[in-house]
Amino acid sequence: MTLIKSISGIRGTIGGKVGENLTPVDAVKFASAYGSWLKKESKKEKPIVVVGRDARISGKMVQELVMNSLVGLGIKVIDLGLSTTPTVEVAVPLEHADGGIILTASHNPKQWNALKLLNNKGEFLNAEDGKKILDIAERDEYTFSEVDDLGAIFRNDGYIDIHIAEVLKLPLVDKDIIQQAKFKVVVDAVNSTGGIAVPALLRALGVEVVELYCEPNGHFPHNPEPLKEHLTDLSALVVQEKADLGITVDPDVDRLAFISEDGEMFGEEYTLVACADYVLSKKGGNTVSNLSSSRALRDVTNHHKGSYQASAVGEVNVVEKMKETDAIIGGEGNGGIIYPQLHYGRDSLVGIALFLTHLAEKNMKVSELRATYPSYYMSKNKIQLTPDLDVDQILEGFHNKHKNEEVNIIDGVKVDFEASWVHLRKSNTEPIIRIYTEAKSQNEADQLAEQTIATLKEIAGI
């Protein structure tokens, strides 16, 4: 059982001992720390916090604990109930709120839950603010309100519909052309809140929907991470239904993947590539993804005469680099689309609407669209080291061995070769180096990973 505290929130498994897992006591403690920080930041007499959750079995319990902790601090809570991460992010500025909390452990299995913390823009907290909250929790520095100054909870369960309406307003979302295409789509929402949001969006776009695992009961029918090996039921049903494509999202709907009409994966890395291709074709501009994302985005951006930049891994880092470079679209290779015209957060609903508009305009099958993009293949590995080894020194040694190549050290060490790359990152919690490689074939990517592991062992003397 695990409890992980980070600048972006607190994540852990339900049950067990206080301080070692995400127990009710820990939920109250960290919600109170966030609320205490927010009261110092806000100039309002009663700050406002938007709270929503995915459909995890523990979600209602954790949400009640979190909301009533905020009420005890004199904070007004807007309860979205079952919601999505991007929906909460959209709601914060629309409600003129001071912050938001999303109760979700994203793609983690059902025994996990988490408090994801937002600022008054509906964006994830930066490192400085996150550290302040952790410090408050560490010192138990809370002052709760007296009885006449308690906050209150106000329910608003209409925000998924509001979110969908905001997506439909976007100039690059063409509802008419999508409707004319008469798409038939199978949706796997892993029995979480995507089962509410994604079919509703598709029907609003005039799409025929076949629902698979769309009951938001929190009983995930398979591993909720949207990877090929977990999506066999979706692939089979797409073929069986003679559908145009399959759509899958993770439990909080910020990661998006597609299945082609033949049942094959479109490729999670290519969700962002396809959406960026469409946006860039309409309006030239810049793009951003993190260092561990496919080179295909860079290629597509160059094709449209834009500038591509890479950020450190983590959504908050992608957003910061997007703002710095005035990027018109960005995200992460895990299927996360960030489209600033709506908000600075990964949003599967925006991604679906942009992708379907692109597909309808191209008048292609999904497999044909995929074939228009450069093909890259990834390998993801790790090397376990003994605690006495200096990971930073090993990474520096790897950097030195490749000093004549194009090297980026903003987040670990990334070495770009002519037709491939390798990215090394150290774990913050254990002596592990994570190894990501990409090349023009799976065999080449795997070989590059093997060579990298051998080089690291040589540097470490093991």
From TrEMBL:
The keyword Transmembrane does not apply. The keyword Metal-binding applies. Its cofactor is Mg(2+). It comes from Aquimarina brevivitae. InterPro entries: A-D-PHexomutase_a/b/a-I, A-D-PHexomutase_a/b/a-I/II/III, A-D-PHexomutase_a/b/a-II, A-D-PHexomutase_a/b/a-III, A-D-PHexomutase_C, A-D-PHexomutase_C_sf, A-D-PHexomutase_CS, Alpha-D-phosphohexomutase_SF. This is Phosphomannomutase. Belongs to the phosphohexose mutase family. GO terms for biological process: carbohydrate metabolic process; peptidoglycan biosynthetic process; UDP-N-acetylglucosamine biosynthetic process. One of its GO terms (cellular component) is cytosol.
